[in-house]
Specification:
Helix content of chain A: 55-70%
Number of strands of chain A: 0
Number of helices of chain B: 7
Shape of chain A: globular
Strand content of chain A: under 5%
Strand content of chain B: under 5%
Radius of gyration of chain A: 19 Å
Oligomer: heterodimer
Structural class of chain B: mainly alpha
Helix content of chain B: over 70%
Largest sheet of chain B: none
Structural class of chain A: mainly alpha
Shape of chain B: globular
Distance between the termini of chain B: 39 Å
Number of strands of chain B: 0
Largest sheet of chain A: none
Radius of gyration of chain B: 19 Å
């Protein structure tokens, strides 16, 4: 996406979408770790309707946009589906995320929403998420320096 | 007419009903759709963790071009999520509610969520909502994996007597 072609309405549109997204997370109860844990312990299956309902809506919208529409009005970008390449990190990462979600009952978007409804103890989880994201970034950056050798060092010095 | 047993089973499966869940899910999908249709951006919540770290860290991983270029809108997206939830908490269903889940579960679980979502290329919104909505095999595998491990972990923790 080219920053130069962005409409001044770009950030307001993202913010508005975020508001609706966050309102949905709050209404659904996903912002409450207790509700998520009830689902994972098979005490309340309602959460299926949150992820399922949301995926059905985006599924229809993505299909219609990629099939019948041309470019997004505020950026001029083509409509694309979300397709990421598969490698073993998708499974390893998913496993680690799953253990964390099962332990805490909270995922990133729901954590931001949880803070929004005034549940300040969720800051523990948000702090943990930043620490975890930092740890993997630190580890992966130092590891790629080792394997790529001196060329990586030169690339680093340009940042 | 002859439904007392299925109805009872339904109430067991959904003790809080299904309306708030379905309504919330539709709004989550609508929010992602507003962003997608107007800008073409496919929103995910967990990349914010890394792109925001680029403001304070020199580590290569966080200062990749895609993060530097997207960190502004990712911040706006997260601010929107907080604001939308605040509308609910302050106006539509006012009152203070805080979680009883213990701090070490939130901190330790959050740490693993931070590692796992970034290693696995997405979270419940990126893979779960947008990726599954795109019928991406990568996302479907990721969601099946994190669901399995989350259910297993939550069941083991509950069986060990940790509550909440």
């Amino acid at each position: 996406m080219s920053t130069t072609e962005r409409s001044p309405l770009f950030l307001p549109a993202i913010y508005l979408g975020g508001i609706v997204f966050g309102l949905g997370l709050a209404i659904s109860g996903m912002a409450r770790p207790e509700v998520v844990l009830d689902f994972l312990q098979f005490d309340d299956f309602g959460l299926l309707f949150v992820m399922g309902g949301a995926a059905v809506v985006t599924g229809i919208v993505f299909f219609v946009a990629t099939t019948f529409l041309d470019r997004a009005p505020l950026t001029g970008d083509e409509y694309k589906r979300r397709v990421k390449s598969f490698d073993r990190n998708v499974v390893i990462g998913g496993s680690i995320f799953g253990v964390g979600w099962g332990l805490s009952g909270i995922c990133p978007g729901a954590a931001y929403a949880s803070f929004g409804v005034g549940n300040y103890p969720i800051l523990w989880a948000i702090a943990g998420m930043f620490l975890g994201a930092y740890a993997q970034g630190y580890w992966r950056s130092s590891r790629s320096d080792d394997t790529a050798g001196q060329s990586a060092e030169r690339a680093t010095s340009q940042d | 007419m002859t439904e007392p047993i299925p109805l009872l089973a339904l109430a067991d499966l959904f003790p809080r009903g299904i309306l708030p869940y379905a309504l919330g899910g539709l709004l989550v999908g609508l929010g992602a759709s507003i962003i997608y249709l107007s800008t073409g951006v496919i929103a995910g919540a967990s990349t914010f963790l890394e792109s925001t770290l680029s403001y304070v860290s020199d580590i290569d991983r966080f200062n990749r071009f895609t993060y530097l270029q997207s960190r502004g809108w990712r911040f706006a997206f997260t601010a929107g999520i907080v604001s939308g939830a605040a509308i609910w908490g302050l106006v539509l269903d006012p009152g203070i509610w805080t979680t009883e889940v213990q701090w070490w579960r939130l901190l330790g679980g959050g740490f693993l969520v931070g590692i796992g979502t970034r290693l696995g290329k997405g979270c419940t919104s990126g893979h779960g909502v947008c990726g599954v909505g795109s019928l991406s095999n990568t996302s479907i595998v990721n969601v099946a994996t994190f669901m399995t491990f989350a259910i297993g972990t939550a069941q083991v923790v509950a069986a060990l007597g940790v509550s909440p």
